[in-house]
Amino acid sequence: MAGYVVAALFSLNNGLAPLRHLSPWDWAFGGNPLEQATDAWRYAALAIPSVALVAIGLLAVTRRDITAA
Questions:
Q1: What pLDDT score was predicted for residue 44?
Q2: Of 23, 35, 39, 46, which residue has the fewest beta carbons closer than 10 angstroms?
Q3: Nearest CA-CA partner of 24 in 55, 59, 48
């Protein structure tokens, strides 16, 4: 939710406009996707860390030593 707010509101303020690149929404769309196609690397920049974090989470959950009674 915070990323969406950053992408939507920070571009309206000239002082905060450079910080809009902190938002994942800006990474994914990169400008105006209705006028020009979005680059594939933008989706990879979001997908690769997401897949890595899910894999780390799955490993952490499967290695737990608490079993059901």
A1: 87
A2: 35
A3: 48
Judged by DSSP in three states, 64 sits in coil
Residue type, 10: F
Q: How far is CA 66 from CA 50, 54, 56, in A?
A: 26, 20, 18
Token pair for 34: 């209705």
For residue range 18-57, list pLDDT tens digits in order.
777 777 777 777 767 778 877 888 888 889 989 999 999 9
| Res 1: pLDDT | 75
Alpha helices (runs of H) in 1-69, residue ranges in sequence order: 2-9, 24-29, 40-62
Q: Tokens in use for 19?
A: 């910080």
